[in-house]
Fold these 3 entries.
Entry 1:
Amino acid sequence: MRIGILGGTFNPIHMGHLILANEAFFKLNLDKLIFVPTYLPPHKTIEVNVNPEDRLRMVKSAIEDNPAFEASSFEIDSKKRSYSIETLKNFRRIYGEEAQLFFITGSDSLKDLFSWKDINEIFKVSKFIVANRPGYPFTERLPKEVETVVITPIEISSEDIRRRIKELKPIIYLVPDKVRRYIEERGLYK
């Protein structure tokens, strides 16, 4: 079985995340792709009025119509800072040694790559896949363990969506309708 793992804050999940997931799913010939919202990310802070369970619910609502996608609450359930190696070891336990794990991240992560906890172990537990992101071109000196996947570049960011909400600007077409309604009904990001 070929399983993609896509982690992130998803604060909120947006169309760029979904396009990345969908293209990676097909280009890597995956059987399943699992979204893993983080509880507390090691490399950034979450400073808004959205709890981890809200972010998980938004992910679930965004992907509920795609049977190849699922959401994992593993990192949120841990209630602690999330490290990719722990998440990957969890999925290794669940799916066994015969499963191929594909850890998918954006090219913006490359700048901090060697500050990640147990990065060499991550390379052993999974195939490390980096997808292009606007403004973060692949460097010529990628580590040999890193594979790339080129996707349609979509310049949408969660930070921009949060700013737009604060400024009372529309976010239609930037996030799935179910996510937009969830944000509006709960007054998130204001």
Entry 2:
Amino acid sequence: MMLTGWLLFSLALFSIGLYAVLARRNLIAILIGIELMLNGASVNFLAFNAYLSKDPAVGQIAVLFVIGLAAAEAAIALSIILAVYRSRNAIDVAGLDELKG
């Protein structure tokens, strides 16, 4: 597959993730959208690395950092979602407009 094919695939992943973040009201769906956006960025790293770089390790190391970031983000976001669910018995974003100390 050519570079443009990988970039279009990455664009599709990122666009679906962006739509999920902006259009959904469920916190789990928003989290899945963020994961899709990070996967689209990872595909971009690997595609540009495969076609433009002589060293294959550069893009793979960048993708490993993105995977680590996604794992940390998922752990923190799931703990926040669990805390919100325990306090409100719902994971809808509409009711989260005020901060509480």
Entry 3:
Amino acid sequence: MKKLFKVFLTVILSALISHTAMADFKKTKIAVLDFQTQGEKFETDDMGKIVAEWLITDLVKEGRFDVIERRLLEKILQEQKLGVSGVIDSESIAKLGKVLGAKIVVTGSVMKLRQFIEVNARLINVENASIIAAEKVKSESAMKLERLVTEMAEKIISDFPLEGYVVERAENNAVTIDLGRLAGARGGKRFIVFKEGKAIKHPKTGEILDIERIEVGEIEIRSVKEKTATGVILREAAGQKIEYGNMVRSLTEATTISEPYWPEEKTGTPAAPATSPQSAGQFNTGEEYYLFTTIHTAKNLSTWENRTDIPAIHAGEKVVLTKLDRHYAKFTWQGREYTFIYHLAKTPNAIMLSKFLTRDDPNPAISGIPDDIKTAVAQGEAKVGMTKWQLLYSKGVPIVAGNRKTFDMNLEEILIANSWVYLQGRMDKLYINFSGDKVTEVRD
């Protein structure tokens, strides 16, 4: 009877927590004003408006923001005799917030000076007109402005992490959280799992200033329903276990690869990093290799997904392998050390590394490419008429070949496929189709 009552109580509590969390969840209401243009003249006088539209599109895609509709915003601003751009004084912001019901106003500028482009944004709390965040992205090359705006959207999204609860842990270690499609949860999104610890109090007043957060582990979402999402456990902290009632907080793209980690073995003992000497098939630390295919890095980190909108180290560059582990490798290039992470691939690292590193110099083959294709390769572009190998030199290994993710595929298997997909942003993909060995279609 006690056991039955315990089960019943667990079910009731689960329903209450899930219902309460969903009831409390509300999308953040945001108004995005036209960006001011600065510096050299843009191709169109409406560039500030276009940048705002691009930013709105990226924020709406995320699913967790209630963005004020453009025409309504313009109508109300005209009625209130406020400008569409540059409304940053406290009186105007307070007035705007009362009329629109928005909690956050995004305003900013885009500056062009020769090849230099910079986008600035400020997130303003309409309740007190304070700037709660200021974000900046810039490029010293002819990077597409739209791509910079997408980077800006990612920064803004990271200022509003999703938070919820674990509502179920199944026997197969699947974890369900109370954040679903309506809240902006997406497949592939990762969450830190934590629990509350002791209260942090002021020594004089006794006021509770904060609550300690104890990290329990990390999960990645695999499937999403309207109000819930189910994922897999990527890791659990030593001595901790992810369980019902734990809290979750979404990670940004940048933080998900910030530190390598070692999942627990089936025995529950954390796996340790490899020790020297290290080798993986034909790969050994301390030895020189050429990049067989282009690899993309951000903040000295790269992953097997090889996201193509971040800076590239091109095929043919010489590197030195400095560390090998089951879940990541380190190499140096031009005096700097980089970490290549493939822990989610769950494939032997020799298979993974063989797609990126080689002892044979590929530069003679690259130098023999026709000049028009060679220019595209140097700029990391995909172009109709390229061969599959030329595309590997240009953009690197795709995330999908055929209908299969490439983490456990070797290059021969990838080269057989007649369609490739590249990840070129958090959500954006580039689709390549081939006829035989030649690219016949390139589309976003």
